[in-house]
Amino acid sequence: MSQPQAFTEAVQKGYQFKGEQVKIGCGILNGEVVKDASIYIPLKTLNRHGLIAGATGTGKTKTLQLISECLSDNSVPVMVMDIKGDLSGIAAAGTSNERIVERSAKLGIQWKPTAYPVELLTLTGGNGVKLRATVSEFGPVLLSKILGLNDTQGGLVSMIFKYCDDQAMPLLDLKDFIKVLQFIGAEGKAEMEQSYGKISTTSTGTILRKVIELQQQGADVFFGEKSFEIDDLMRISDDGRGMINILRVTDMQDKPKLFSTFMLQLLAELYASCPEEGDLDKPKLVLFIDEAHLIFQEASDALLQQLETVIKLIRSKGVGIFFCTQNPQDVPASILSQLGLKVQHALRAFTAADRKTIKQAADNFPESEFYDVAELITQLGIGEAFVTLLNEKGIPTPLVHTMLNPPQSRMDILTEAEINQINAQSKLVPKYNQVLDSESAHEILSAKLAEAQAKTAAENNEATASKEANTTSSRQKDESFFDNPIVKQVGRTAASIITRSLLGALGLGGRSSSRSSARKRY
User: Fold this and answer.
1) Distance CA 490, CA 286 (A)
2) Is residue 423 within 8 Å of 128, Cβ to Cβ?
3) Rounded distance, CA 509 to CA 157, Å?
4) Cβ(117)–Cβ(241) under 8 Å?
5) Cβ neighbours of 517 (radius 10 Å)
6) H or E stretch including 247?
7) Residues 6+ apart with CB under 8 A from 141
8) Gap between the Cα atoms of 231 and 161, Å rounded
9) Going from the N-terminus, what domains does the chain have, and what CATH number goes with each?
10) What distance in Å separates the CA atoms of residue 211 and residue 216, rounded to the nearest whole number?
11) 285-289 and 78-82 as β-strands: parallel, antiparallel, unpaired?
12) Shortest CA distance to 42 belongs to which of 383, 320, 404?
């Protein structure tokens, strides 16, 4: 059997599945595309998560776009974190060119420009559906992780949530939480300590500083009403295709705290809201995190722990998570080991450290009789990648050098006019972009403090008025006493006696004494 024939049979055996599947490309052997060596991905396994890796400019974002299109065509909703801003073009039909025509001919496919149903989402109040969540929905444990608090400070946060629950004071946004911190640090401290235990002023101050730090990264826009409902990420369009939800986070590079906050809330909400489904024929939702290295570089320990936990447990709820990054080593080993599908674009070797990284990446793939992976991984062309995945039985498929299909949507950004048009037609913008400010802890405590201050002011005014009245009454009594003629006469007599006594003590007793002394001398 010739090598091309053996290669074709190996690919067909490894990449032909019983259930629903999507074609993403064809295998390459000795630099030539083998049309009969089609590479399919079974929808049944896409909840086992995946990795799309490769150096800048190798086409990994277009691979993400291609898989998103395939999922949408098969009625699977998608959510994409668009950090570079170049994924919004999925909403518009692509434009044919010589490279697309040439690639389609090599792959033996019919390329058709297609626009996909898209919702544009935003965390920072930009042009799109505004994602929000309330402080209460986070809960004390998750909020403490976001703020990076120790056990003592986390215990105080739990106490605050308990107090607000008992007093029926909703914690909706950060100003609510800050108001409670200020209240228990001053007027409400005695009240809380009586019911919930000792409160450390130092811990209160530390938590307040952490919250302000979160505010500085724009968290005030994220916390509040109306809370985004997870079910709205799992919508099917009117034509039966899965909605592609594009979260535009192009300004998140300098706001790692806010992005971590969102990721923690989203994953926690997905895990808590989705019921156990077991092994479905296709996933309920697939989440793509583009430029994932930016997340892991800035991620807190809480986020890493939460990601690892969710990756391990959320598969049975029908949700798949894919990381798109420049190097497989950007993803922690504990998470990398949980990923079923791996699409590896070219890596570049400029230094000894790069060559070591490439050797490690090559060792992580299944052995292949058709490729020298460590050598070929630096020579892959744009839109080419090594592909391997877990089949329906959980067995790794052969590693295949693959030429990937070109996306059918636009491989570029949308114009501002096109973005405005999408938002104008959105069913979610009217639902989530209205500003709500319901009565919550801030208003309740402000009213309580205002009432207490008014009561204190009234008491002070009453005390001042009483004191002034007493002073006036005493002055009037004194004046009436000294106006009495008898009192005045007694006063004059007493004054005369005192004056004489003082003059006598000073040897100035008067003229009669002087005359008596003179008589004695003569």
Assistant:
1) 106
2) yes
3) 85
4) yes
5) 9
6) strand 244-248
7) 154, 158
8) 26
9) 3-129+227-257+283-432 (3.40.50.300)
10) 9
11) parallel
12) 320
What are 130-152's pLDDT values in tens digits? 988 889 888 898 888 888 888 88
Using CA atoms, how far apart are residues 213 and 210, in angstroms rounded to an integer? 5
DSSP string, 280-336: -SS-SEEEEETTHHHHHHH--HHHHHHHHHHHHHGGGGTEEEEEEES-GGGS-HHHH
Tokens representing residue 164 in the block: 């607000």
Q: Which two tokens stand for residue 52?
A: 């799309």
Can you give 366-428 as a three-state secondary structure string? CCCCCCCHHHHCCCCCCCEEEEECECCCCCECCCEEEEECCCCECCCCCCHHHHHHHHHHCCC
Distance (Å, whole) CA 374 – CA 299: 30
Both tokens assigned to 60: 């990994």
Of 325, 264, 279, 314, which Cα lies nearest the Cα of 137? Answer: 264
Q: State yes or no: pLDDT of 519 exceeds 60.
A: no
The answer to whether 316 touches 30, Cβ cutoff 8 Å, is: no
* pTM metric for this prediction: 0.81
| Residue 291 falls in which region: left (phi positive, over 0), alpha (psi -120 to 50) or beta | left
Residues in CB range of 226: below 8 A, 6 or more apart = 132, 431, 432, 434, 436
Per residue in 186-206, pLDDT (tens digit) is 777 888 888 888 888 888 899
Chain length of the chain: 522
**pLDDT higher than threshold 70 for residue 473:** no
Contact predicate 117/245, CB 8 Å: no
CB burial readout 21-40, b (16+ within 10 A) else e:
bbebbbbbbeeebbeebbbb
Unique residue bearing structure tokens 């230094």:
351
Local structure of 450: helix, strand or coil: helix
Residue owning tokens 């959980």: 394
Q: Using one digit for the tens of pLDDT, what is the confidence trace for 398-457?
A: 999 999 999 999 999 899 999 999 999 999 999 998 877 666 666 777 766 566 556 656
